[in-house]
Amino acid sequence: MSSRIVALRMEHIDKSFAGIPVLKDVSFEIYKGEVHALMGENGAGKSTLIKILTGIYSKDNGRILLNGQEVKITSRTDAKRNGISVIYQELSLIPTLSVTQNILLGDEICKKGIVDGKAMRKRVMEIMDTYSLHVNPDAIVETLSIAQRQMVEILKALAFQSSVIIMDEPTSSLSTSETELLLKIIRSLSRQGVSILYISHRLEEVYEVSDRLTVLKDGVKVAVLEKEEIEPKKVIELMIGKGIDETVVEAEMRKSCQPVVLELKNLSKKDVFEDVSFSAHRGEVLGISGLVGSGRTELLRCIYGIDRLDNGQVIFEGQVMKSNVSHNIREGFGFVPEDRRKQGFVPMLSVCKNIALVSYDNIKRRGPFVAGKEEMSLSRQGIEKLDIRPNNPHLPVGNLSGGNQQKVVLGKWMVRDLKLLLIDEPTVGIDVGVKEELYKFIEALAAGGSTVLIVTSDLKELLRVSHRIIVMRKGKIFKEFNTGSVTQENVLEAASGIEKECAADE
Amino acid sequence: MKQDTIRKFVSLGLLLILLVVFSLTSEYFLTPANIFTLLREASIIGIVSIGVTFCIITAGTDFSTGANVALVSMICANFLYYTGLPVFIVLLIGVLSGAAAGCVNGFLVARLRLPDFIATLSTQGVFRGLTFVFAIRSATGVISNKVITNPDFLLLNGDIGGLYYSTIAFFVLAVIGQLVLKRTKLGTYTYAVGADRKASEFSGINIGRVKIAAFLISGICSAVGGIFLFAKLGSAIPDLGIGLEFDVIAAVVVGGCAFSGGRGDVFGSVLGSVFLVVLVNGLYKLQMHVSYQLIIKGAIIILMTIFDSVYMDLMSKYSRGKSPRAGEAVSGGAQ
Question: Would the CB atoms of B192 and A97 count as touching at under 8 Å?
Fold first, then answer.
């Protein structure tokens, strides 16, 4: 960062919704070729700021300057034309079109109205070469992995000659190695003069990749830190505004004195996992780690009973379980899926209905009718237990923030007599404050005698909540750790295959 | 593209099976005369299905085609019956009214944001009603099916060496339709909108315009189909084309368009149309009652939809299994 040319400057931005200020006099700037992290809790104003920058919201006050010139951005097309692109959390690619078609979507090269496929392909190859980012230009997007799709998304931004690329939680669905790759690409882009505004809840990667960092809190810019000043604890304190107690890993090894509740015997599912056996104890939080594609999510789904096993037995409290979700729920199973939006809750239904959804067997009925009062009191229990905000049971869950939505998903299990909770990536896209709360719930649940199986890509989280860690690789159990002695590096090495034993199997 | 190619072989295979079965069971089946008749029958469903293919690829549908066919032929009949306008002007008016009907659908869906299903089901009623309003009546006000004797018009019913004009029009329109779909911006956008509406919006595609274009194309195709059907019958009856939309949708689905959008193409629908007509013709030759034909057609839509979803699942599993890890296929940005 020797030459500091300001690429983008936002000056004195104000924005309020229905009289409630969301951004108050926020100014900030990104240098050319800089990776700039934007940090803040949910509701701090990050997304509003980005939406103003990309023309989705209009600002009440303030100016946006690109390369020193004031620009008016009132639509996404304006933003694009000015070289500002966003890589979204949900990707914006067309699954059935090819990589080339996607990269140049909306900007096709035509000869007399007929699309010139060859010229388009050539243009795409040129862009790929310029930034040394290669994906097969003829591949249909739906056959690509999420990480590859993200590359396509980035290439799409580059094709529009974006000078500023905004990345909103780009790593939320990437595995560790894919994340590494993305960070590499980000650094290479920044070397080529592209400025990157980086937003992520995964603090470590933010520290690793950013040149500078701006912290927002309650709509106000509280700090801009230079690379040397970036320090995890400091950033978290700035974001939350209070010191969080870092009594991170309490090495309670309850394993020795508690009975086995769940026993898996030789579970197999063709092409996904093979011969998986382990057992979990009462009150234990068992972390399952592994790269995306190692079979961990599928394993969890099979234990829950939503997918069928090809082979093996799930034994719960001495009873062999079948692939029957409603039966398993009655036995005390709970499941918090990875994709909470699609599988975890029904966005149109209220908090109350969502919490009651799996508990209608417990709710009294008057003839054929559900007793509304019972339903309501059950949901109030859930809201109270998990401190769901706002605490209005009538609100559709779709309107809550990500963190609170996840609390609803947890809440519907917490109001039941839960014996085994299966959680998949519980804190993706959730801010630090709520994360900590969720960990506390998991701990409380375990302390109350429930067993928890948790799948997560976030190693810090894995070490934070689990008592024991099982590492899966290519559908098999590769290693087991007890927390206390283990480090993130140990888990990562086991999961990614840096450990020698398996190096030669391909 | 590979998945689509395999899917097309499935349609082709189904068609071949039918051909083999029927030619074994009926000696009249594989005669040149019957083949030309089959192709002519297929051309009506086929021409209409070209337009509906566009609608279904945008994750929509068009239920108004049968009524649109009737409306266009009735309008043409009125002009031929009451005026002395040259035939090509009448045909132009016919095509324009079909296009207008398509635009109404497009307007309802794109601007008033009605679901495709509701919009086209309602206009189906409206178009059919209008057809009755425009029906040619006798002096006592009773609807009378006047036979059109205009020789220029009836030329449309002709053939070249047994190959009917409607069949030729069908193939020409199919090639044009396929080119539009695969080789123009509009085509790319049609797939994009159907496969992922939100992503298309984010890519700056005007979704409304694409939807309107799809309905416009569907309206024009219905008009052309309607004109040929009218020429074949020689008189316009208000009941013309009842249930045609059902056959057309069946053909498009057999041809590999998914109702979820973003998949399929015109050539698939061509195969589907021929398949459907061969099926009906064969069942007829086997002296099976119309009621069974309807049941079988309904069952085919259901089975093909199930097949496609199972097939898609399999394909995505297969390709996911084969697609290499990101790190291997994508060379990193920096060393």
Answer: yes
Q: What is the ipTM of this complex?
A: 0.75
Q: Cα(B222)–Cα(B72) distance, rounded to whole angstroms?
A: 8
Crossing angle (nearest 10°) for helices A402-414 and A372-386: 120
d(CA B283, CA B292): 9
Distance (Å, rounded) from C-alpha A435 to C-alpha A464?
11
| Contact between residue A144 and residue A135 where contact means Cβ atoms under 8 Å apart | yes
Residue A111 and residue A119: Cα distance in Å, rounded?
Answer: 10
**At A332, is the secondary structure helix, strand, or coil?**
coil
Nearest to A208 by CA among A35, A427, A428: A35
Q: What angle do CA A470, A473, A475 make, to 5 degrees?
A: 100
- Cα dist from A370 to A336, A415, B192, whole Å: 25, 17, 44
Residues of B near A (CB-CB distance < 8 A)?
1-3, 179, 183-185, 187-188, 191-192, 195-196, 198-200, 202-205, 262-263, 316-317, 319-321, 323, 325-327, 329-334
- Half-sphere exposure (CA, 13 Å, Cβ side) for B61? 21
Q: For chain A, give the number of residues.
A: 506
pLDDT digits (tens, 9 = 90+) for A194-251: 999 998 867 778 888 899 999 888 888 888 888 888 877 777 777 766 544 443 333 3
Q: Is A96 close to B320, i.e. CB distance below 8 A? A: no
Cβ–Cβ pairs < 8 A, chains A and B: 120
pTM for this entry: 0.69
HEC letters along A404-461 = HHHHHHHHHHHCCCCCEEEEECCCCCCCHHHHHHHHHHHHHHHHCCCEEEEECCCHHH
Torsion of CA B306, B23, B266, B69, to 10 degrees: -100
Rounded CA-CA distance A384/A220 in Å is 30
Q: Tokens 């399952």 map to which residue?
A: A288
Distance CA(B45)–CA(B48), nearest Å, equals 5
- Lateral strand order in the sheet of A61-66: A20-31, A6-17, A61-66, A69-70
Q: Which amino acid is at A330?
A: R
Alpha-carbon gap, residue A429 to A435, rounded angstroms: 10
Q: Contacts of residue B196 in chain A, CB cutoff 8 Å?
A: 92-95
Residues A143, B319: C-beta atoms closer than 8 Å: yes
Residues B85/B67, Cβ–Cβ less than 8 Å: no
Contacts by residues A270-273 (CB-CB < 8 Å, ≥ 24 positions apart): A270/A310, A271/A475, A271/B317, A271/B321, A272/A298, A272/A299, A272/A475, A273/A298, A273/A299, A273/A472, A273/A475, A273/A476
Please tell me if residue A187 touches chain B, with a CB cutoff of 8 Å: yes
Residues in a beta bridge with B101: none
Contacts of A187 in chain B (CB under 8 A): 333-334
| Whole-angstrom Cα Rg for chain A | 24
DSSP 8-state assignment for residue A396: B
Q: Count of alpha carbons within 13 Å of A244, Cβ hemisphere only?
A: 19
Instruction: Give the number of residues written for chain B.
Output: 335
**B329 vs A80: CB contact, 8 Å cut-off?**
no
Q: Which residue has the tokens 């990345």?
A: A167
Closest by Cβ to B191, choosing from A97, A144, A151: A97
Residues A311-353 pLDDT 10s: 888 989 888 888 888 888 888 898 988 877 777 788 778 888 8
Establish how many alpha carbons lie within 13 A of residue A43's alpha carbon, considering only the half-sphere containing its beta carbon.
13
